[in-house]
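Quarterly update from the structural biology core.
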Amino acid sequence: MNIIIFRLIIILNSIALLGIFFTQFYWVREAYLLKEEQFDNSVRIALKGVANQMLNYELKMNKRLVNDAVQDTLPVIPDVRNIQKGLLGFKINEELSCMQVGQNYEYAIIDVRDQTFITGNFEKFRKELITSRHQLPMTGFSDSGHMIMSVYFPVERNLIFTRMLYWLILSVVFAVLLILGFFYTVYF
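Predicted structure, tokenized:
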């Protein structure tokens, strides 16, 4: 084989190999972003489920406490400050477990006007809960425009990356096989 053609084949294959690696990097990045979006959607669905369950529970409790004659004439709007911490924690754990988004998190119901923590499990990550991406307004409760339920996952990136780990390892193995095959072809 002519040496010029052989070098041209090596250069073209090297460019093709680089193109494959850049394409692979692009798809890994896109897959991570997709998994991140899927995680965010799962958390939002779980938070909506918790908020609805807590609202229904508080409405039922208020119905029992209010006299039937008074209830017919006055609407009863539950107060978010009456939510029981134990029940809230149970419901959040139940919903997040159902959505398979992890067990390591903190949560709180926060009054955004003065950043007061109403209830929740918020000892370690107060600042992060205030700025968390995973927040939901407490619609249906009194002062709902100022009350949010917030969840923070300290190891969120690790959770997402762990879900992709198998495919990343498989991708690296195939890339290494491709490189070894290329060098074997060129040098042997």
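Residues 3-187 form one domain.
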